[in-house]
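Standup notes, structure subgroup. Blocker cleared on the fe (ii) ion input:
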Amino acid sequence: MNEDAKTCEADPSCGVKSAKDPANATDFEKKHTPVIKAPDIVKKGEFFAVTVEVGKVVPHPNEPGHFIQWIELYSGHTFLARADLTPAMTDSVATFSVRLDHLHPLRAVARCNLHGAWVGTIDLKE
Ligand SMILES: [Fe+2]
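Run returned:
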């Protein structure tokens, strides 16, 4: 193995990142981790709104050289929706209307063009 190779942890193009200690996340982790907002209680089979925001806690840059490229939403490992974003002209926030028959944790993945893909998760209650 090449000793100069970056570790996956240090390589933004490798894997999906998350805060190592969510209760004590760094500002770098906070600015990249998607924050999911959904109702406290949802009903199976009925639409509800899910908003995903990146840079909510600590603002993330939004300029051509550094921005959030896309936001995806999953129910567990099932893909639900995706928003492609344009630097400066769109904010790094997306709202989706979602209807689920099975409640798994909602996962949002967002990709920064410089710092890779990051995941945020919330549990749903019925
Ligand atoms: Fe970034």
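Discussed briefly. The beta strands are 16-17, 35-37, 48-53, 68-75, 78-84, 93-98, 106-112, 116-122.
Next: hand off to the docking folks.
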